[in-house]
Write a structure and sequence with these properties.
Length: 440
């Protein structure tokens, strides 16, 4: 799509992980800047070109959401500029005739985004355009919650305590962006089709989030049972910013401390990613990169297909492929099975999740995987190996979840366990122990 040329002063709000008009920090600042606002969304070629699956459900979700937002803008007599390109090219073009006065956007802490935003800032500086960024994706931004000596936390419990002590009114303050939408600019806008950006419609759709009193007050009891709707399903909406994290946290404060703690885990992993970007690719604790992972593609494929012969693992893997979601308890079990029972490199499992989870967030995904592998900050100790059979007895005793995803369980067509639990557990403990002691 061609980028319109605006011949009077304007500012841009650049949407990324904040796809909503309501309670949006950077958008509100743009809307109250005194200039008409061009809201911009870029289908970023640098990201899209790396995705292999034409039917990627996240792109369908994004496309639907942008289409919806364009409709909302049009109802207000305004427009949303949507472009398929490299965002730096887009900003460069918008800056060409000197009318763009500033770009407003919400912070994104992923390594790619940090590089992209540094490039945007540099480019805009040379054009005399201000680049304003805001905290919106998390409650407290990386760097805000630190140890008294200013260094980052690497253990969750003290982080969480400090998070509570630090929390200010400003952190939770709503930004009434939806009240200022009269400042949006208007022109003829179109939406690039899914086809034109290289994708096809996926049949997978995102779950609605339920952050109701009912779910939250029962959360502590129900959150580990995969067969019931005991959690909020908010993750995909926080990932794309279709819901405000501040609104969510307010519900947590009202109804469930336990649930609020999960939101703080999310902040924690964003802080870890920002302070230790190396840990997105390598073990947070470098000695764990000495573990001699097995290379076995057949085992990897059986795990991805949900044919391990361990029903809770198989149910989870099939739920993931069918819905783009997996229950948290089951994520822990399948990840542990992968790293410990199969002794496969956590990075491979992490990449598989990254390709299929609708709620994929680099920080939380790597955090969850390194927790399971034992290599992360505040991770499970390596000698703690989940027993997938006792996990099943504990959390899906009546097999409700298993029967839903593995209908052949209990028949002859269901495979025998691909690896013996006792042997695999001991093999993992010995392998880790040797690798870690060989270093010392
Ligand atoms: C191996 C592994 C990989 C994971 N990958 C991701 C991922 O890519 N993206 C993602 O959002 N979460 C990830 N998680 C965390 C968690 O499984 C999901 O956030 C949760 O299952 C989403 O369901 P929900 O929204 O119903 O969560 P709820 O239980 O209702 O929790 C509310 C919100 O808190 C946050 N949250 C909950 N648990 C965690 C956690 N352990 N770590 C960080 N944030 C949390 C999420 O934003 C979630 O939406 C992973 C966990 C593991 C063990």
């Amino acid at each position: 799509m061609s980028i319109p040329s605006f011949d009077s002063p304007f500012v841009v709000h650049w949407f990324r992980r904040d796809l909503r008009w309501q309670d949006n920090r950077a958008l509100d600042a743009a809307l109250t800047s005194g200039h008409p606002v061009v809201p911009l969304f870029v289908f970023d070629k640098n990201i899209l070109d790396r995705l292999d699956n034409q039917h990627d459900a996240r792109i369908t979700f994004l496309h639907d959401r942008i289409s919806h937002m364009q409709g909302e803008a049009s109802d207000l007599g305004a427009s949303l500029l949507v472009v398929h390109d490299d965002p730096i090219n887009v900003l460069e073009t918008l800056a060409e005739n000197g009318m763009m006065k500033a770009v407003y956007t919400n912070e994104d802490y992923e390594p790619y985004a940090q590089t992209r935003d540094a490039a945007a800032r540099n480019l805009l500086k040379t054009r005399g355009v201000a680049f304003h960024t805001f905290t919106d994706h998390v409650i407290q931004a990386p760097g805000e919650v630190t140890k008294p000596d200013g260094t980052p936390y690497t253990v969750f419990t003290p982080f969480s305590k400090r998070w509570h002590l630090n929390l200010s009114e400003e952190n939770m303050k709503t930004s009434p962006s939806e009240k200022h939408l009269g400042s949006l600019h208007t022109w003829d806008s179109t939406l690039p089709s899914l086809d034109s950006i290289g994708f096809k419609r996926s049949s997978i759709s995102a779950p609605e989030a339920t952050i109701t009193k009912n779910v939250l007050t029962q959360y502590a009891e129900m959150r580990d049972i995969p067969s019931v709707r005991g959690t909020s399903r908010l993750s995909v909406h926080l990932r794309f910013g279709t819901k405000s994290i501040r609104e969510a946290a307010k519900e947590g404060f009202k109804y469930s401390e336990k649930w609020l703690t999960e939101l703080i885990w999310r902040d924690f992993y964003q802080h870890v990613m920002h302070a230790f970007p190396h840990s997105m690719k390598d073990a947070f604790r470098p000695q764990y990169d000495r573990v001699p992972w097995r290379h076995n593609d057949e085992d990897f494929q059986r795990w991805t297909r949900g044919e391990t012969g361990y029903p809770l693992v198989d149910a989870g893997m099939r739920e993931l492929l069918a819905t783009g979601f997996m229950h948290n308890r089951v994520r822990m079990v399948v990840a542990s099975f992968f790293c410990k029972h199969l002794l496969l490199d956590w990075r491979l499992g992490e990449r598989h999740f990254a390709a299929h989870l609708l709620d994929f967030e680099l920080a939380s995904n790597v955090g969850g995987w390194q927790w399971a592998a034992g290599s992360g900050c505040d991770a499970a100790p390596y000698f703690r190996v989940f027993n997938p059979t006792s996990q099943l007895q504990k959390f899906d005793r009546k097999l409700t979840y298993v029967r839903k995803w593995v209908p052949e369980y209990g028949t002859e067509s269901y495979p025998a366990p691909m690896v013996d639990h006792k042997m695999a557990r001991q093999r993992a403990i010995d392998t880790y122990k040797n690798a870690l002691s060989s270093l010392s």
